[in-house]
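Our preliminary data section would be incomplete without showing what the modeling component actually yields. Below, a chain of 182 amino acids is followed by its predicted structure, encoded as tokens that our downstream tools consume directly.
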Amino acid sequence: MSIYLVRHGETDIDLKGWMNVLDYAKSLKKYNRAGIKINRNQSDKVAKIVNPNAVYFSSDLPRAYQTANKVLSGTSILQDKLFREIELPVIKIPIIANYFIWRTLSRLFWFFGFSKKSNIWKSKKIISRAALKLMSQAEKHDVVLFGHGMMNSLLALELKLKGWKGRIPIVNNYWNVIILKQ
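Predicted structure:
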């Protein structure tokens, strides 16, 4: 059996400009409510890759669920909060930076465990639960997850640690599909 990890399409949101920590926190909330930019070529390409007879899961965030709907058009998709993107901490530091600098800082603080709310150790527990859920489903049939960049990459690493085989790209672009086999 196979597990397909599909990253959502490009998010339909403008994240340009400089912001302080409060603006960054607001932009994260907007990002989590945003949908995707339509890209028929990419959704068609993904539709040709994933197994049409699989069980389909999606994060419950709009960008992942909309991606699944564009690829599958009308197929049943099970939404699950467990597959949401890794939550990055908002660290209160007095700087003005663009969104991508803030996100990089948040990832560093997450990785080094500087936030009690969201850090690598808490995320590992979530990733482990998500991997077990996908593996248990993959015992019966192929599974496709429409998810997020960091989450899908970390899930792929966890699945490889559990014996699954496949190539994990260094960069996980929009619409990317990671295929893992037992």
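Residues 2-12+37-87+117-181 form a domain with the Rossmann fold fold (CATH 3.40.50.1240). The helical segments are 21-33, 40-49, 62-72, 99-111, 120-138, 149-161. Preliminary results of this kind motivate Aim 1 of the renewal.
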